[in-house]
Design goal:
The protein contains ten helices and eight strands. It has about 250 residues and is α/β, with parallel strands linked by helices. 6-hydroxyuridine-5'-phosphate binds next to strand 8 and helix 9.
Length: about 250
Amino acid sequence: EKKRKSYQQKIDSNNLHSKAKKLLEVALEKKSNLIASADVLTTKELHDLAEKVGPNIVALKTHIDIITDFDYDKTIIPLIDIAAKHNFLLMEDRKFADIGNTQELQYSYGIYKISNWADLITSQVIGGFQSLDFFHNSGVIAILGMSSAGTLTDKNYRDEATKIAQSHPNVIGGVAQNELPEELLLFTPGINLDTKGDGKGQQYNTPEHVFRNLHTDFIIVGRGIYKAENPEQASLSYKIAGWDAYEASLG
Ligand code: BMP
């Protein structure tokens, strides 16, 4: 079996994007590879969750356009402070999917001003190589394969998308359900310790499965944490499960 690279080996690699370096350093410092997905609907819930899970995560993933009372000063400015306090990165799961010019506008303008605050952003690569050129302030995580049943990201699509991700200097990794070339960090959503699906197409695996079989670098957990009775405790459980699975995958 092929050996995976450790976080330290990845930090030591050449031409590493500054956001990838930061993420890997936080992982080693906190012994965590957990990204919590904060799919909550209000600013208060977002801040409360960030405070509770902050010590256990390397990044907080947002869908900022689902926050019903979004206000840049009230939602984002305190969130940046919480992220600094607990030493985690902010990842906006925007899944850009347009031509470069439109993505450039969506990234920096409108009410969300994503380029001001997102250390990491997700983007489709459906618009081609140049569509990613304007994401200057964030590390780009390319959507290469999806976790949902019936996704159109078949092998041919994934292979072509992965070539774009590998060759673009703004891209630090990919969201996928398969192993990636080792210079791309692998982010895997669809992680849950208690259930196999959500009845809406989502398909879940365990941390153990994805670290062993896919050589995942970071797990993304939404409802397993924010819907738990005790999100703080749940984030600790996923952090430990993720770290143990990472260490086991080093062999
Ligand atoms: P949950 O753990 O509650 O199923 O949430 C998963 C999160 O990861 C959601 O925010 C979803 O948008 C995201 N996600 C996913 O589930 N599968 C993918 O292929 C890509 C994603 O970004």
